[in-house]
Structure prediction request, 853 residues.
Amino acid sequence: MLTAIASQIGPYRLKRQIGSGGFGKVFLAEHTTKQTQVALKVLHTFSDDDEEEKEAYAEAVAAFQQEFRILQQMQHTHIVHVLDGQLEGETPYVAMEYCSYGAFARRYPLGVIFPLALIVSRVRQVASALHYAHELGVIHRDVKPQNMLFGVNEEILLSDFGLAALTHKGDGDPDDPYRFSGTLYYMAPEQFFGSPIPNSDQYALGVTVYNWLSGNFPFYGSTHQFAAYFQGATPPLPLGDQIPDLPAGAEAVIMRALAINPDERYPNVMAFADALEEASQAKADFYALPIDWAQEASAQLWADQALVLHDAKRYEEAKETCSRALALNPRFYEAYAHRALIKYELKDYAAALEDLNHVVEFAPDLQVAYKYRALVYHKLEQFEQAIANQTHILERDDADAVMYNNRGYAYQRLEQFQAALADFQQAITLFPRFALAYANQAGVYRELGEFQKAQDNIQQALELEPTLVLAYNEQAMLLHKLGRHEEALACIRHAQEINPHDTHTWVALGGISYDLEEYEQARIAFTRALELEPASADGWYLLGCISIKLGDYSRALEELSQAAKVRPTYTRAYHERALLLYTLQQYEQALVEFEKAFALDPTNAKYWSEFTSLLLKLGGNDLVRDMLLRVIQRHPTLSEAWFQLASCSAYNDRFVSAHQQYSRALKFNPHNAFAYAMRALCNLEMKHYNSALVDCRRASALDPEHYLPWQTRGNVFLAIGQNDRAYQAFSQLIERNPDDAANWQTRATASYQAHNYAQAIADCTQALTLDEELAEAYLTRAQSQRELAHLTEAIADYQNYLAASPKDMEAWRQLEQVYEMLGDPDRALAAHQQAEQLMTSSHALVEQQSEGK
Prediction:
């Protein structure tokens, strides 16, 4: 078991954790006397009571000591420097150079694609570090972006030699406890089988290059599939198919580094880096174009002219002038930046983003490029990407209040409200008079239903900035939420007096009008918002919803299509189109739209429920089944499709098929509590009682508050005659769903069968309080009253039940018995005659059916 780590270790005061790994944790720490910051790697400590943990700890200490010794002897520009270490005692540690610019993998998440020229520069840096290590007889064994850090000059620093092996130790040494260590997707075949060599690091660097170029790995699969790959059965996925403009020579270089046989790779890792650089220069693009000083000077003149034209609002001319500058100097990042700003002014956000990507490519340290790129992502409503750029900036400047505010807004749009609140609060902490941050925070509190906090924030924002339009918009939406619609509209009018061109004000007006069912007014407002901000997918979506309300379906389809065009990942737009197309009985097109929504959000139970419900209404259960089978044919591992198909089978009492289909759903999503609960029902119907109870337990473990497993448990116990346990299960059911009259009636049945008649009467009474037309509750209460000889009360309940179910022959016989017990032969005879009449009718019906056959 891990034990706690102190706040100070040796001469180092721990400030915060910045990383963790298999052997320990990494802290940002400060030397208590030198006041210098270090990255302090601290080894996990273990309990002395566990022999296995003690053995694991001894192995970890050995690896920790090896890393320290290796790093101590290494002094290289692209390897993290070790400063100090303590390998003995209760808490071993190593103090290393602190790289404040962070890890490569944190700045650039897995899947980010880079241009070849930028990759070449990075590969040379990593290769030089690896070549240096190899010359010293050290194999890194875990080369990957997660083990690359940025130095103060944005240079790459190789870290984490915790898995490194000394080459003189021998290939596949059986005494090496870490001989199979590494990261699976980056491991060379020989390393996979426990025999790393220096060229194993070349292979891992080749995998890294492959991933940087394509965003993918050269091979995906299970351990057995990896083994097949390493034996030559499956080649790496070709890069040319993924990157059409990649020079053939570059692909050949990378594939050689990925050769299964290490002898077929380059002689050393630097030879690989040299070959990649040479192949990249063969590409006929600006990376290889020499630029003389005259061209560079001319490009600067054109860029200066573009600024003049931009200031004069002659945007098209300014954009063309930037393009002329770039024709002279294709690496001139300032011209890209100027042109991006112009395109932003022209609301051509996608084109602006393309130029900003070039700025970041050629000037990765230019922080303003990330700021503008975040703004563009906001306009494109691509908030995850906006957050990535804002986080990049905040990692370098954690005192940027504006950036915290902007990131908070992105979190808010993604409905990650706690993260949004934290960022807005940090912005306010850094700049206490930040009115905009108060107003934004008010919006989050409104979404969370904390209306008083929202009002307090709005008031604070307006005290700081009385003409802040956003504060009035928030006030309007809060008042509308509270049902004070006229006051809300007055706030909107005041905001429009301050700035009639504010997009958010028109959106707020549209939303309020829509909720008030003033659809024409809502359309006017959203149309105006789109005139101001054409790239608003939400605006087009809401217009589509309005058109649906107004019955203008063709227009709605066009508007919803535009929403999806602006934001291709807009799941709601596809979903709404699907529902509308079904309403119009355009089933094939609707299925296509549903599949688009499912591809983006395949586990959305609401979508599936609406899908199947609509199919049931339009075409019955057979149509639902046919459609689901078609979906499954295209997406055979889609758990929710199997779940809905199983529900169709259960609806038709095909419980064996339903059981099999629920099992398939659980195979692809073993965490679906509802699927376990429904399979339990199938087991109950098939009288597989033990299996039903097992599934109920699994469902409750996944979702303790779900009522259905307890309902099924209770029915299982009733079926096997364990009435007391049935009562307990139904009590749990009522605790989770106390407002359902049927639940009280079900528990009453258990009490009646357990001869607890008083409890049965109480439960039936509660059921009838919730639903006075629940006939079964009258019957169970009548039977319980009869058992307690409360004959008058029993008669009243039987009469109420028979008024709702007059053809229940058994109930008439029971009523006959009660009248006899009461000494009322006339009414007993009348009840008897009703029962006999029902029996005669039943026999006649059976005879008619027999004659028909």
Summary: The chain has 39 helices and ten strands. The chain has a mean pLDDT of 83. The beta strands are 8-9, 12-20, 24-31, 37-43, 82-86, 93-97, 138-139, 148-150, 156-158, 165-166.
